[in-house]
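Work Package 3 (structural annotation) set out to generate three-dimensional models for the target panel prioritized at the project kickoff. During this period the team completed the workflow that converts sequence records into discrete structure tokens, so that structures can be stored uniformly alongside our sequence database. As a representative example, we reproduce one entry of 119 residues exactly as it appears in the project archive.
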Amino acid sequence: MAQHAWVFRSSRRSRSLWMCSNGGAAHAAVEYDFDLGLPHPRGGATAAQELAFTLANGFTYVERGRARGLDVDEFAPRLSFFWDIHNDFFEEIAKLRAARRIWARHMRERYGAKQAGLG
């Protein structure tokens, strides 16, 4: 749902996406509403930059969802990540492991997630 939403301002984009997500979730079984991914190495981003920007984007969606009064354990499992994997095998493994650990720790400690897989 979130792909190519970058053409709108961030406040308008997130408001529109949350409205669609909440409305769609009530009427359909949608497994993943938001596919989070930003810079790609083809665009000049390093693995560390991709990790930082993608997680920051994810945490922003979590904060916006909580600001709308949603329970993090209900909507956060519908977030998914899009990672670009390139030729440096060990760097990519490290990036994905770091992303999982950072996401889980923040979800548990900062947002109080209780569901397995979120923290």
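Helices lie at 10-27, 47-67, 72-75, 89-109.
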